[in-house]
Amino acid sequence: MRRLLAVGCLAGYCAVGVAAASVEAAAPTLSEQDQGVRVQFAALHETVLSSELSAKISALPFREGDTFAAGQALVTFDCSLFHAQLTKAEASAQAALETLAVSERLAKLNSIGALEVDQASAKSKEADAEASAMRATVQKCVLAAPFSGRVAKVSAKQYQFVAPGQALLEILNTQQLELQMIVPSKWLAWLKVGARFSVHVDELDQTFTGRVERLGARIDPVSQSLSLAGRVDGTHGQLLPGMSGIASFDKPNERVAAASR
Length: 261
Known about the structure:
CATH class of the largest domain: Mainly Beta
Largest sheet: 6 strands, antiparallel, barrel
Number of strands: 14
Radius of gyration: 35 Å
Helix content: 25-40%
Strand content: 25-35%
CATH architecture of the largest domain: Beta Barrel
Order of helices and strands: HHEEEEEHHEEEEEEEEEH
C-alpha cells in the first residue's frame, strides 16, 4: 500500500508539473511582444541615366558622391551638328508654309487646281514634322536631373563619344529612403499599415522610429513570409541607402493581454 501511494503521489506531482509547463508555454514571451527583424535602407527614387544620342560628351560636371538639384544639367553633349540640322529643318518648314500660302491664293484665282493645294499642304506638314523631330533631338542634348539627390556611380568621361543606350550616371535620392524587410506571414494578425516600430541602425549605432508604409501583395508559400516597406520619421542626412539594422515591433496591448489569458 505504501508503495502504491508513493507511485500515485509521484504521478499526481508529474501531472501538476505538466499542466504548469503548458500554462507557462502558452504565456507570451518577450520575443512575441517585441518582434525584431533585419531591415535594409533603400532609396525611394534611383535610376541609371543613359545616352539617347550618338554624340560626344562636352560636360560631365558631377563625380561620385556629389549632390545635385532637380532639373540641374548632369550631362551635356556636343550637339553642333544637331543644331545645324534643326536650323535647316525649320527653314524648310518656313519655305513649305510660304509655298502653301501662295498655292491657296492661286487657287482662289482659279490658276491652279485643288490637287496642287493639297500637295503643298502635305509638304508643309511633312516639313513641320521634320522640324519637330529635330527639336526633340536637340532637347536630348542635355540630361537634366529628374529629382534631387546624389551621384552613386559615373560610367563615362568628358569628351568621350557615347552611343544610344550607353549608361552614363547612376543617381539616387538619399533624402527619401524606405526600409525593406521580410516578416512572418502570421504577423498579419496584428501588423497593419501605419504600425509603429523602432529601428537600430548598425552603421550609426543609433535608433530611429518609423511606421509601416505598405505591405507586400503576396505571401511566400515556402517560407510563409511577407515583404513590407516602412519609412523613418523625419529627415536624417546621416542615413544612406544600403544601411541595415534591426526593427522592433510592439504588439497592440489588447492582443498581448488576450494572449496571456
